[in-house]
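Worked example

This section walks through a single chain of length 151. The input is the sequence exactly as stored; nothing has been trimmed or padded.
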Amino acid sequence: MSDLVIAADSRVTLHFSLKLENGDTVDSTFDKAPATFTVGDGSLLPGFERKLFGLRKGARAQFNVLPEDAFGQPNPNNVQRFKRDQFDPALELHKGLIISFADASKAELPGVISEFDAQQVVVDFNHPLAGHTIAFDVEIINVEVSDTVKS
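Given that input, the structure is written out below as tokens.
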């Protein structure tokens, strides 16, 4: 089974790290248990999954994933202005504070405070990694045929 290569519907166990252009690590499993997922199950963004295609058990690789294939480019329409009095007066605002909002369908939507004063609060609903090229480092621990393909 070690001859299997990662393809659509593969079940993959791997270690990974995501780093920003400046070298800051955003997430990593190298110092903990590896991650296991099935290609296409939504665990990884498709742009990250495509970089894995063709790799085998034991492979180690590094890729740069452009914003368009990762978390997208920031959308100025995702930056919203609110009146300050729409926030609890006891809430201590600061730049970078993440607040949970409800979208139109009542789903949780995190927003980051980017500016504020006594009259207004500017909230950025873009993904925090939008606009960043991500350095993706992987070590493939195992590749299997997924259960959905076996049945």
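What to look for: The domain at 76-124 is CATH 2.40.10.330 (Thrombin, subunit H).
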